[in-house]
Each structure stands twice: as structure tokens, then as C-alpha cells.
Fold this protein.
Amino acid sequence: MKTAFVLNGPNLNLLGSREPTVYGHQTLADVQALCERACAANGLKLEFRQSNHEGELVDWIHEAGRQQAAGKAAGVILNAGAYTHTSIALHDAVKGAGVTLIELHISNVHAREAFRHHSYLSPVAQAVMAGFGVNGYALAVAGLAQMDAPA
Ligand code: CA2
């Protein structure tokens, strides 16, 4: 069974505690449980992580890339939080690792402030998902499983 890496960036540990109109009421632990169910339904194993540190996210993308190259991982679903809009390091990490990437956002970033409209990750992502709320994580898991399935 292959692993789906679901990686979460800065401040997503605060999910459910503030800004419920933008991000909903569910906590990151709720999102992890939702991802567990989605992975089980799609024949994937889950590796779910959150970090407030850019370099740690870079290391995890490299790890996922090595596992994918070894046939042990399907790819990465990444909600990079605000690093989406700032991080050339994450862009380079995805490119360098050669990993399959689904970029994910809980909110519709294009309906928000202009500084959220640009993403350094979209050019190196296979797919981009935004605006489905936390249910987007389950949809992304299903999408990653389909991308990995033989044609
Ligand atoms: O919509 C998304 O998922 C975002 O990636 C979330 C980021 C934001 O910087 C992106 O533009 C869009 C912010 C994550 C912080 O989440 C919080 C949740 C609750 C309370 C405070 C922050």
C-alpha cells in the first residue's frame, strides 16, 4: 500500500480556534481523521504532518520524493499556508524531489486579498484545489489515488 503525504504549513495548527468564517470549525485533528478515512477508502496509507518551519517542510517533501521514487508513496498533498505565496524554497523542493504535488487551500484564495492570488507552488503542482473547505482534503486524497492508479 502506498503512502499519501498530507503536509500542512504555518499556523494550520490553529485551525478551528479562530477565523471560523474563513476556515470552518474543524480542528487539524479533525482534518487528520478525515484524511485517515479518505485514505482507507482509496487504498492509501496516511502520513499526516504539520510544521510552522519552512525547512522542515522542505525536508518532508524530499522524504516523500525519495519514497515515491522507491514506489512507496503516491505523492504529496500540501497546504503550505502562507508559504504558498512566498516560498521559492518549497517550489525548488518539489521540483528537485520530483514528487507528485496537489496544492491545497481550504479557502478560495482567489476570492481573498491580492497577495494570496500568487502561488509559487502552482507551477510545480499536478493539481490545485481551493475553496472546498476542509472537505477538500478528502477530495484531494481521492484525486491523488486516481493519479497514481494505472490507466
Ligand atoms: O486557505 C488555505 O488553506 C490557506 O492556505 C490558509 C493559510 C493562508 O495563508 C493561505 O493564504 C490560504 C493560513 C493558514 C492559517 O490558518 C489559520 C486557521 C485558523 C486561525 C488562524 C489561522
Remarks:
- The chain has a mean pLDDT of 97.
- The chain has one domain: 3-113+123-132+144-148.
- The first strand starts at residue 3 and ends at 8.
